[in-house]
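Anyone up for a design puzzle?
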């Protein structure tokens, strides 16, 4: 499966990685690479738990650009 993820840096310099298609699937790292690696593990764990509980694996998401 392929997922679109977000990668942001917080005010303390920690990288936060999130998979919007899987509710609650978030991880972090001190580097971008570490955050993405940790998110990969989190995605796998979240999918496993959602499957065990009979929940939909993902929810529909869309990326939009909005000019302000």
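Challenge accepted. My sequence:
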């Amino acid at each position: 499966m392929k997922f679109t993820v977000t990668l942001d840096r917080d005010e303390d310099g920690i990288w936060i990685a999130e998979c919007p298609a899987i509710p609650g699937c978030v991880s972090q790292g001190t580097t971008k690479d570490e955050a993405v690696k940790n998110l990969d593990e989190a995605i796998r764990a979240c999918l496993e738990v959602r499957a065990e509980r009979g929940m939909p694996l993902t929810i529909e998401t869309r990326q939009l650009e909005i000019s302000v």
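A detail worth pointing out: The radius of gyration is 13 Å.
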